């Protein structure tokens, strides 16, 4: 019996459920890059480079750890997986459940001859069953209530034990203290960036070739600038970004976390979300490290609680709601909005509105926008304009 493990591009963690369920001596791992994802959505050039380069680096790390790993680029996932199963005599295929419900449906639609075993995702702190149990006993699915439950459940920023535990500082939420207006000339510390290595440079060339193929077929070019590409693509680099945030940005995160300053796209933001979303970092290890370092360094509790709330609260909450509301959730349109995306939004600039064009220009340059830019600029504008959510 040969167990096959298909690792998806946002599951790049050695402790992820499918890998944890198997023995390297009797298992074989597959990672697939497929340009077919672009048929569904024209991804930002830097996102493609980030995901595909991280996958290649992770494949190398698994090999170093004793796994037999196959990595391939293919026109479609189905052709790649079927060919791999035949070639290596895979008798059982294991996958950790993807965060995206649609991707699981697409995998099941492949109708592979080999039995498919789904392992519950351990990429989030709350399992889908645990979130459903919480949601089922609450009339209001408010973030604040969920966040408090998470603090209790995982013992984060708490004093005391068990049912008598209370929030550190006597309050659950210090949000009012994290909304200071930025003074003129405010500048945040420099973020930690990385020069592309040979693997990443090869992926950049691959994305350039894909763009040429799209143009030959009269398809629009992929959005965003391809270079300079400066994101980390390994777990070691992701951990370095975490430590750099703690050393240079954590103490100042709180007061201006909701600020927007021209020419300062990152301010004191952590820049950890890409690494959490790829699996290079696990949310609990990040929360524990932030809590430890913040308390040791005397970081203002308002800022420490604020950054932890983004991970323990909002990230877990939105993931939980996505699955709790069921398969029809992505098709909902409460306000009956029907407008298309404006052409300038698809082109990442040219609206004639300074705030919007500044944010879109930053997204074009790096693929990144912090939470206030997404909520209060691009998201709010789409809501006011009546853009169809889908």
Please sum up the structure shown.
This protein is of the alpha/beta class and about 400 residues long.
Give the helix tally.
15
The profile of the biggest β sheet is: 5 strands, parallel
Strand percentage lies at 5-15%
> How do the SSEs run, as a string of H and E?
EHEHEHEHEHHEEHHHHHHHHH
Rg over C-alpha atoms, rounded to the nearest angstrom: 22 Å
Low confidence ranges: none
Trace the largest sheet across and list its strands.
3-2-1-4-5
User: Based on helices, strands and strand pairing, what is the structural class?
Assistant: alpha/beta
Task: Describe the fold and architecture.
It is a single chain. By secondary structure, the chain is an alpha/beta fold. 46% of the residues lie in helices and 8% in strands. The chain contains 15 helices and 7 strands. The chain has helices spanning 17-20, 45-64, 77-88, 101-108, 128-136, 143-154, 198-216, 235-248, 250-253, 273-278, 283-297, 301-324, 343-346, 354-366, 371-385, and strands spanning 3-6, 27-34, 69-74, 92-96, 116-119, 158-159, 166-167. The strands form 2 sheets. Strands 3-2-1-4-5 form a 5-stranded parallel sheet, sandwiched between helices. The chain has a two-stranded antiparallel sheet with strand order 6-7. Strand 6 and strand 7 form a beta hairpin. Helix 5 crosses helix 12 and helix 11 (283-297) packs antiparallel against helix 12. The model has no long low-confidence stretch (mean pLDDT 95).
């Amino acid at each position: 019996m040969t167990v096959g493990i298909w690792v998806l591009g946002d599951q790049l963690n050695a402790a992820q459920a499918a890998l944890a369920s198997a023995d390297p001596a009797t298992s074989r791992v597959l990672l697939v890059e497929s340009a077919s994802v672009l048929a569904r959505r024209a991804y930002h050039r830097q996102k493609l480079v980030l995901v595909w380069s991280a996958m290649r680096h992770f494949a190398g790390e698994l090999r170093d750890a004793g796994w037999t790993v196959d990595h391939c680029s293919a026109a479609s996932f189905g052709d790649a997986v079927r060919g791999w199963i035949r070639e290596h005599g895979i008798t059982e295929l294991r996958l950790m459940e993807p965060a995206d419900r649609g991707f699981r449906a697409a995998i099941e639609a492949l109708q592979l001859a080999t039995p498919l075993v789904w392992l519950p995702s351990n990429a989030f702190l709350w399992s889908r069953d645990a979130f459903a149990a919480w949601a089922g006993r609450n009339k209001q699915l408010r973030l604040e209530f969920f966040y408090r439950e998470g603090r209790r459940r995982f013992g984060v920023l708490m004093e005391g034990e068990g049912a008598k535990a209370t929030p550190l500082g006597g309050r659950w939420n210090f949000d009012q203290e994290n909304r200071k207006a930025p003074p003129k000339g405010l500048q945040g510390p420099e973020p930690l960036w990385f020069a592309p290595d040979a693997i990443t440079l090869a992926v950049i060339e691959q994305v350039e070739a894909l763009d040429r193929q799209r143009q030959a077929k009269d398809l629009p070019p992929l959005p965003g600038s391809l270079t300079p590409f400066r994101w980390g693509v390994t777990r070691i680099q992701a951990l370095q970004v975490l430590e750099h945030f703690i050393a240079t940005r954590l103490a100042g995160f709180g007061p201006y976390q909701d600020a927007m300053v021209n020419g300062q796209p990152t301010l004191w933001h952590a820049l950890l979300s890409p690494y959490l979303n790829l699996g290079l970092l696990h949310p609990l290890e990040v929360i524990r490290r932030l809590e430890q370092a913040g308390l040791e360094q005397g970081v203002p509790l308002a800022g420490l609680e604020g950054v932890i709330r983004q991970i323990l609260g909002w990230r877990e909450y939105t993931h939980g709601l996505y699955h709790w509301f069921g398969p029809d959730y992505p098709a909902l349109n409460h306000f009956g909005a029907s407008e298309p995306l404006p052409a300038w939004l698809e082109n990442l600039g040219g609206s004639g509105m300074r705030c919007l064009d500044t944010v879109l220009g930053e997204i074009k340059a790096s693929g990144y926008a912090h939470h206030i830019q997404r909520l209060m600029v691009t998201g709010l504008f789409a809501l006011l304009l009546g853009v169809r959510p889908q």
